[in-house]
Amino acid sequence: MFAKISFPLFVVSALAGSSFAAPFNTQTQTRRYISFNDWHGLSSLSGFDNFYGSENFSGEISTQVVEQEQEVVCHSLSVEIIQQKLLVLQEMAKQIITEQICDVETQTIVFQQYISASSHFMSDIMHTSGISAGYDSSIVSHHSDLYSSDGSLSTSDLGFSGSDVGKSVIVPTGTNWNDSTSPSSVQVAYAAAQSAIGSN
User: What is the pTM of this model?
Assistant: First the structure.
């Protein structure tokens, strides 16, 4: 069951592209907190800070609760199939933003939050965040609630907030991670991807 519902989580990374920042230690960064509730008088931003909190714009989490009783093993598919799925999710994200936000300023802020939140997953994959690379099964289970029966986007409140992420995490096993060699090999892979982004 989990193999069928896991891929919608990656909608947050499908659009990131060149906006991914290099993994860094957030503890060393000086932060400035900005409230976006009704920012510049935009009613479409009412309650914005309630989702992650005014001091956590990008939805960063420092702890997670792993569902030990749920074991999921990753199974490699053709990379083109993975790219197809992520492209579907990418276009879904565009649909949500363009059909359900009419203020372009709010589109901008929400999209930047989306990109920023997705960038944290890169550090999880590279084992530099202290958080395991996995997905919140409770959040992912809402993928079927995104559309109404007539195929249009749902307008329903899905009943969770950003602070709920990380409370029901499944960490698939079976990757080729090696504590001795993988820290350097993923850095090489990351650098190659960033070089490809920069050449576009």
Answer: 0.80
